[in-house]
Each structure stands twice: as C-alpha cells, then as structure tokens.
Amino acid sequence: MWVMASFSSGIVIHEYRHFDFGTLAVLALICLAGIGISQRYKNFAPVVLPGIFILLGIISAHGRGVYGQDHILYRSLKWGEGPVTVSGVIVSDIRKTQQLYSQKVRFELAVRAAEVKGQWQRCSGKILVNVSRDEPLHYGDEIVASGNLHFPYHFSNNDKFSYRTYLKRKGIPLLLSVKKTAPLEVLRTGQGHPVMGGLLRLRERGNKILSGALNPPEAAIMQAVLLGERSYIPRDLNDLFVKTGTAHILAISGLNVGVVVAVFFLALRMLPVKHTRQYHLTMIFALGYMLVTGASASVVRATLMVIVFLGGFVLERETDSVNSLAFAAFLILATDPMGFFDIGFQLSFVSVLFILILYPRLLERCSSLTDRFPQKFFRYAVESFVLSLTACLGVAGLIAYYFEIVTPLTVVANLFVVPLSTAANILGIGLLLAGLVSPWLAALFAVCLKFTLNLMVLVMFYGSQVPGACFYLKNTALWHIGIYYAALAVVVVFLRAPSIDKAG
Length: 504
What we know:
Strand content: 5-15%
Oligomer: single chain
Number of domains: 3
C-alpha cells in the first residue's frame, strides 16, 4: 500500500510543481545517495524507499508531457489554427452520437503526416477527430481527413473539471473538426493490432444484438453496463440514476466484471477442463473483456484483482485484499500516471478501499443484531445494507466535491437496484450468447431482461420522488472534503478491526 501511496504522491506533486530535467537529475542523485546510506544504516530504509517511489511518480508524470520534436502539437504551433489535412491510423473504437439532424462520429487518430499549404510533413502524436456526419469507419483504418485543427474547448460545469485538461492528460492535446462537406478518405484497412480489432468487432456485434432485441432505452442501459458504451443513454434516464445515487450502475464496475467472470468460470466448471487450466482461461477471458469494454479504471482495477485472486489459487498462496487493490492501482498508474486524476479511477478505488477496510468493522458491530435474528434472509439484508452504506460513505465526499450533489437515498436505493442490476447482467450475458446461436432463445432472454430493467427503472422513479432524495451543494472546496475523510478515518481507527480477508 505504501508503494502505491508514495507513487501517487509523486504524481500529485508533479501536477502542482513542475520540475525541469536538471532538478530531476539532482533528486535522482540524492535518492542514489540515500540507497547507499540505507545499505549501511538500515534505519534509513523506511525513509529512503518512499522517497524513491515519490521520485518515480514525478518522473512518470513528467514523461507523459514530453513530446518529440515532430509531434503535431509543436508542428501546429508554427501552422496556427486553421485548415489542415492529416494522415494517420484510427486507434480507438468509433463513437457515434446523435445530433439534431445528423450523427457525429468521434475517434482517436495516431497521426503519421500532415499537409499544410500544399506541403506534407511527418508528424507523431494522437489527436481527437470529430466528423460531423456518419462515416463507415473502423478501428485500424488508415485515413486522410481535412478540417480545422484547434485546441479543445474548456467544457466545464464548474472549475473542478476541464475538458481540455482531461484530453491533455490522455495524451491528446489537439482536436480536428471535420465538417459535413470536408473530404475524408480511407486509404487502407486493418492497420491496427489484430487482437484489438477482433475484440472491438465483437463489441460491435454485441451492440447490434442488444439494440435489435431491446427497446432503445433498455438497450442503452445494457450497452453501458456490459459493453461500456454510454453515449446512447437518454438524458432524462441518466438524471434518474444520478438523483437516486445509482449512476454507478451505468458504468462497468467491479460488480459487473465479477458477474461476467463468474458466469464464464461456472461455465468452464461444467466442462471437462483441468482446474489449473480453468483459472488460466478465466484470467485470459477477464483480460479480453477488459479490452472489449474500453479498459476504464474500474474495469482494469477489477480485472487485475481477479487475476491476482486467481493467481493465488494457481500458486497456492493466500492473497491480501488491500495489497491486491494497491497493486492494481500501482500497475494502472505506472502505465498511465495521469489516470490518477480521472474521476472514475478515484471513485472506483476509494469505494473498494472503504469496503475492504470499513465493511468488516461495521459488520462486526452488527453481529449482536444478526445473532439475535439468525434467519438467513435477515442476515443477508443486514450485510447488504452495511455493504451499501460502506460504499456510499466512501464515495460521498468525492461525489459532493466533483458533482456538488448529495443523495441520502442512495443507501436504500442500492439495496433494491444492485440485485436487479446483477440479475440484468446475468440475463444480458445470456442474451448476448443466445443471440449468437438461437433467435428464439434470445427472445426469451429479452423478455426476462425487459421486465427486470423496467422494474429497476420503476424503483428509481418512485425513489426519486421521495422528499430529500437528493439536494445540490454550492462552492464545495477541497478542504471540506478533507475534513469529511478525516472524520471517516477517525471512525475507522476507533472501530475494532477483525482480519479483512477472514471477514470478507
């Protein structure tokens, strides 16, 4: 845990205090000297080692902002904003959004060359391309497109989020707007990674199955929770999830990954496959599902934890839940340091961390109540309530800070919505599999899934009508949230803690 905390601290330090190469070199020499001292004086090791990982975090964050001389950002500074023709390869899935009178296509492009004033120049780097019309494009297509190259706009509801900063942290400093009449040509296909291309085609097939079997709002929900496609959710439906504190249902979370992986693993158990091979195949499947769904922070975290958990069975070793979570976070940040500032990353890891730490402690406090009423249903209800309360307490501060909303109803709402969402996930997986082999079986799954989704939406609709279901805040500052989490930390410290893994 301390490794992840130190590495993250380095990333945060770099965000607010930029270092030049000379300063980094001096800090590196100090760390090397510290290593030498700690070899002789062992008492210095607890101080030196965190400092090393803090420096590694600073260096990793610094490296993400260093571009080559041929980067399109540097080229564009000489060209100025205006018409430009670029050539490159599509390196993301194709996002289509419905506008008032037409569709808009969006994707990431790895630039190879650009033409300005009739002269082609080699370029590198990624840009985001917006095409104001529907185009039959796919991952791995090499294209030539003309449009206006500019910096992303500062789309933001408050001063806590900037669309430009968000894209910059993803390594996308520029945006290319292609108008309806602007030329766009596909030169070659199949230029991307073949495995990624196959997985994205599988995702596209899944979207077609869901949209063909379900009504648009129902299909939009399942496309979001199973395939990571949230662009089709209607605004009023999204607001309903937000007001009831159940918006996490629309994002692929650890729960979704757990259900999908569990279904796959149980299917393997019914086949004549060796136990060790079952674990290996399940880990491979989890990685493939992560890539199909877009590899968001919550999915990557859940996938890595699944791999660590199953790897423990293969190696016949026990795993520590908190350390597994920290290890997953460290791997994510090591590959993408700027992912630390992603809201999804923060919500995902904070919620799971509080579940691992606070849930067993609160559950122990409720042991006298569950012992008094030993019925299985009552015990399950208490455990579910405590789990929902713990997760909600963990993310409440972040939600209040970023979205300036508090939803007291979320603890109760999740008691009903989460089981229905789990059932919908299982039925949705069945629909996807049935859609590949039997239209009649797919229709049966579709009927059951429609009933489950309509019941879930009905629960949220009536829940949103409860007085005080949600209220909005103004001017929430970071120190407010600091006080909130400090108070939670005091609660955690003073609650007697059983062993996390035994309790969970």
